[in-house]
Amino acid sequence: MKDNRTSDTIFAILKTNANSQKVKIVRRGDFPAPKNSIQYATIVVKANDRPEAFELIEDILKDNNISYKEEKLSGSSFNGFEIKDYYKIGKRESAIRILFKYANGQDTAAKAGSIWNDLLLQVFRNNPSLERSPRDRSEVEVVKKINAAIQSLGSYKPVDLQIKSKRYSNVAGIIAGKGTKKADFVIVDNNGDEIGFLSYKAGTNALSFQQYGGITERASTNISNHKEVNDFKEVVIDNWDTYKSDYKTIWRSIEDNKLKKMAVFGQDYNRQSGYDSVDFVVQGVPKLKKVGATLDKRSIIKLNFSTKVIRKNNLTALQGNYEPTIGARKGERSRRIRLKNKSISGVRGGVFTRAYLTRGTNKEI
After folding, report:
1. Bridge-partner residues for 283, per DSSP?
2. Domain limits for position 340
3. Is 305 exposed, middle or buried (0-12, 13-18, 19+ CB in 10 A)?
């Protein structure tokens, strides 16, 4: 059944529920009206963490029974939402489009092209869809530094990029991943093929980032339907109102290593490399140096990171403070944990580091 709310009403719902210090909801230009011929009502969501803002807006749309589709929309390299099933009042009104931008209103946090090297710009001419800018503001300088080093250390020619013992051949540079999938960075060769996938975490320790991944269907049905996840959700839903006044977080150790791997490396961790099966989880500042050359004279560049470089499925490197742990904390009022016909709002669940969940007042359940 068609939603009887107009674009202005839907905009007001988003603005009321999402506006905060981290997220701003604004109009782009005028909305369709009976006296104009504008086709789209365009809403811009400004946030430096675009994946988190994306999840927040999706939760608000679901909670308000607003039908939507995730789409690749012009005007942003990050996926957005398109809403068509609502009450239209404009002469040519077609849809509401929701775009995600950085807090400064730009699609990239640097000047156009400055995060890319010349090799990638050449690749983009034949493969324009690969020009995907980073999803999170903290990733921009990382991409920029890696791409600049590939160009300078490789003398403006494609290189072989080496991470630990794994080597990627004929590399032009790195780009962003797709949507909210696990890979934050994708290694691209000079033919425009995507050949390597990395999950990136900022900072210097296990408290520098929030979570490895979510526990909703958006993260993965294999995760959201996992018995350990559902058992945890049930306890949270039944007891959160009691716990929340005394504890900032509640948590539970994960027993199944498969669940840990899905949360950290992607739901397809047991398959070949891809957006949801990353080769490495990396953290910190990138460090690159030339370590040799191939027989056909391509430079071999070693890529390391200042804090951690973890090969896929290596759980032994994720012990102690980095232990993947299922938990819940207070979240925005539109955040919700659901289990079948039960739910609770104002709480955010996920798989976090042990250090993140055990700081301050916390309870193991």
Report:
1. 201, 308
2. 211-261+318-364
3. buried
